[in-house]
Amino acid sequence: MRNINIKELAKSLNLSTSTVSRAFRDNSDISKETKDKILAAAKELNYQPNHYASNLREQRSKTIAVIVPELGNNFFSQAIHGIERIARDKGYHILIYATDDDHEKEASFIRHLHNGRADGIIMSASGEANDHNYLNELNQERLPLVFFDRVYEDIITPRVITNDYDSSFAATRHLIKQGCRRIAYLVINKNLSIGKTRMQGYLDALAKYNIPFDDHLIVDCTNSYQKNSVILKEMLSRLKPDGVFTSVERLAFATYYACGEMNLAIPEQVKVIGFSSLEIAPLLSPSLTTITQPATKIGIEAASLLFKMLEYPDQVDVNEKVVLDSKLIKRNSTALTAKTY
Amino acid sequence: MRNINIKELAKSLNLSTSTVSRAFRDNSDISKETKDKILAAAKELNYQPNHYASNLREQRSKTIAVIVPELGNNFFSQAIHGIERIARDKGYHILIYATDDDHEKEASFIRHLHNGRADGIIMSASGEANDHNYLNELNQERLPLVFFDRVYEDIITPRVITNDYDSSFAATRHLIKQGCRRIAYLVINKNLSIGKTRMQGYLDALAKYNIPFDDHLIVDCTNSYQKNSVILKEMLSRLKPDGVFTSVERLAFATYYACGEMNLAIPEQVKVIGFSSLEIAPLLSPSLTTITQPATKIGIEAASLLFKMLEYPDQVDVNEKVVLDSKLIKRNSTALTAKTY
DNA sequence: TTGTATGCGTTATCAA
DNA sequence: TTGATAACGCATACAA
Q1: Which of A6, A242, A300, B289 is the one with CA 20 to 30 A from B311?
Q2: In chain A, which residues have pLDDT < 70?
Q3: A116 contacts in B (CB within 8 Å)?
């Protein structure tokens, strides 16, 4: 059955297109009778108002764009899940863009979105670059933007983040209390806000507990599994840390593999803690101590914030910041062991 | 900077809108000179052709819809990743819909897509329902559909699947060779094609090796973690299987947890194997023997198939079926143990 | 090579 | 309560 348009539907009912159109808008004046008749016929003939024509006319798309660095990461897929739930409730559709941590791609996606394709953007940032001008243009075009988790500090727009500094401080303190004195901090991008904040918590905890700081212990990793493997093994053998704190889930796994290859026992010789949204962290060998962000909740909050901006643009506080708590869940990868004492 | 439209851009250049329009289409006659001038001005003034107006005019959206049962599953997020890569190369955008395994939602999404919103659909099915009429309508509307992994047998359209029967047979044989005689098969939905195919491999392997079949060992699970926990613990204590074969990743994790709670040692007392795309299966305790589907590759193939349908509609073979191989990766959850012999 | 005019399918304004 | 009509922004057939 070919899709039918409003004209044909109108003709088949001996009505005007305006009347038919009204049947699909809630607010319009139309008798219940004709409305029912029209809706019945629409169902019968499989009529759906054309999305592109409506959008062109109404100048909005009922679509939001979600931009994330990667899809193969539990945190982001859970966050998207949260966003999707809210969007669906509101009758919105979501477009997904993965940047593969490439700042150029991010900029390119956003430039494309200037064309009316989406009514708003929810995004977790990919780059450290200083030129975020393409983002500043958004506001002026009334294309609302909400950041979640990874943000650009210099762009003023609502954001949903977690208490990274506190979590990081608590994680480092936990390692210290478990007896660690040489704690490596693994990061993907030191310059990204999230890298900085988390690192500061680590540094301050060290200072607070009078642990001497060795800046070689801050290890810059990459997005490549192979390269990280080399970097980590070299680091483990040269620096001999007794604790590893990873700012990203993937690096915790990489540490497990590297320790395995080097026959370093976790937690006896090296204790490991990491930011991670892995639901089966308890099933790892050893079970992984994690700082777990409320990923789905973050998605829900970010979407809610965006819809607030769309529905009540006048009441928007661009400085709005929702801060959610992550949880430090202690498991065996940081357990005390006979050997430690 | 407010978005500018084609008219304003044309006026600012003292050209007609058609000339400007031509600058953005590759095929049209236009002098290189004016084209360059227009593109430069467009960049300057931040002009982007309005997506909805173009689509309305051209009657296509350069968008594909991806419908999956769930997002919090490694298989699907990897598959989406593959789809996203191909789509991006082709200049297409992707809309994501998660059905939460709800067949009603699936039907509702697809009905919505009748309105021109997407040029094609890639989907993994959610339900066993027999009424797939809403799908049959698609073909007649020239809205191409490609299935991946979970398919409806009665809908004739291209599909990308894995050799589930063989994998299932091999997995069961592996358990048998490791000494298992009472092998439980855990499934979410017996009636869905994927459940049926995988189950048949299991049944045939049992028959081949003369293992008596007890139909209580086929355990119907749910999507609820809590309910599965109850079901599995009850099953383990009552049926005392020495092997568990799970048709879905999540059920393998559930089995680990249930065994943990009941103090059943894996692999000594119960061996476990499961379909899973978990990249860190080697890090589990014990490491999990998996049948791993090439998830990203499946996404890539499905997207390629869809683009073939979009680009060469005449050459489409609706019976086209791409079958990829899964890998059986033996790890410790099915290892031989002293106790077994 | 460029310009003019029309229509894609819808909704809003205005008139009846 | 309903109908006629214009406009949303763009791309193309046709004319120049």
Answers
A1: A6
A2: 1-2, 128-130, 138-141, 338-341
A3: 3, 50-52
Helix (H, G, I), strand (E, B) or coil at B313: helix
B239: Cβ–Cβ under 8 A, 6 or more apart, which residues? B182, B184, B214, B216, B217
Helix, strand or coil, per DSSP, at residue B265: coil
Look at B285 and A280 and tell me if their CB atoms are within 8 Å: no
Q: Same domain, yes or no, for A193 and A140?
A: no
DSSP assignment letter at A188: S
CB-based contacts of A71: which residues, under 8 Å, 6+ apart?
A77, A96, A98, B77, B78, B80, B81, B84
Tell whether B193 and B275 lie within a shared domain: yes
In a domain, A340, yes or no: no
pLDDT score of A141: 65
d(CA B105, CA B309): 26
CATH of the domain at A136: 3.40.50.2300
Binding residues for strand D (Cβ < 7 Å): A 14-19, 22, 28-31, 33-35, 53, 56-57, 59; B 5-7, 17-18, 21-22, 24-25, 28, 47-50, 53-54, 56-58
Q: Do both B277 and B301 map to the same domain?
A: no
Q: Quick one: tokens of B265? A: 């040692």
Distance CA B215, CA B235 (A): 12
Residues A143 and A176 in one domain: no
Instruction: Give per-residue pLDDT as tens, A14-54.
Output: 999 999 999 998 777 788 889 999 999 998 888 889 999 99
Residue numbers of chain B with a pLDDT score lower than 70: 1-2, 28, 128-130, 138-141, 338-341
Between the alpha carbon of residue B35 and those of residues B13, B14, B24, B239, the distances in Å are 11, 13, 8, 75
> Phi first, then psi: what are they for A33, rounded to 5°?
-55, -60
Q: Which two tokens stand for residue A319?
A: 């400085």
Q: Looking at the structure, tell me whether residues B32 and B180 fall in a common domain.
A: no
User: Which one of A62, A104, A117, A257 would you mutate to disrupt binding with B, by most B Cβ within 10 Å of its Cβ?
Assistant: A117
Interhelix angle A32-45/A17-24, nearest 10 degrees? 90
On whether both A303 and A272 belong to a single domain, the answer is: no
At A34, the amino acid letter reads T
pLDDT tens digits along A92-146: 999 999 998 888 889 889 888 888 899 999 999 987 666 777 787 766 667 899 9
Helix and strand totals (H; E) in chain A: 12, 12
A94 close to B (CB below 8 A): yes
Residue numbers of the domain that contains B221: 164-293+328-334
Closest among A117, A121, A160 to A139, alpha carbons compared: A121
* Neighbouring C-alpha atoms within 13 Å toward the C-beta of A152: 21
Q: Cβ distance B49 to B263 under 8 Å?
A: no
Which positions in chain A touch B285 (Cβ < 8 Å)? Answer: 283-287
